[in-house]
Fold:
Amino acid sequence: AQSVSQHNHHVILSEAASLELGCNYSYGGTVNLFWYVQYPGQHLQLLLKYFSGDPLVKGIKGFEAEFIKSKFSFNLRKPSVQWSDTAEYFCAVNRDDSWGKLQFGAGTQVVVTP
Amino acid sequence: DTGVSQNPRHKITKRGQNVTFRCDPISEHNRLYWYRQTLGQGPEFLTYFQNEAQLEKSRLLSDRFSAERPKGSFSTLEIQRTEQRDSAMYRCASSLSSGGNEQYFGPGTRLTVT
Structure:
């Protein structure tokens, strides 16, 4: 069965630090990849997505992610975080033959301290 | 585009009661998904509609759960004879079948079964 693994459940860092969140999936076929974010009190929002082409994708709010097919990974990065980046981050995968249903990782709670 | 809406936002019910949740997707979106999220986990797929047709149901969806999308617009999710293990956040998402199936999520309905 396909699974999505996020490496850290909780991350605490200071403003201006760099952030990298790991995501690995187990399906060997063609996939679409997503990172969603949930800010406190808000609903899930799409940060960025990868469908095909350039494996380095840029999203909103200065986030980027790199798809490494050989490693089945889609890691999220931001060079310099802000307090407003405090949120829960979810990696999600859908197989191209799965009607678009998403399989999510367990999420990473990121806390940015001033 | 008013986004995906869900009602109610919160529901507290006693064990054994029936509950019904509603999801209104983005108006031009033909795909609609229901997910369930429990504490410490990412959302888990429950069921999927393309227009009014329910095309897939997860094994998580027991016989007590039923979902409809009668006119291909809004959808309802009903849980009969609720149990405490049904307590969760129920999330709805919608998308277009073209363009990579980027899903937009509603705010969720938090169900507490006492």
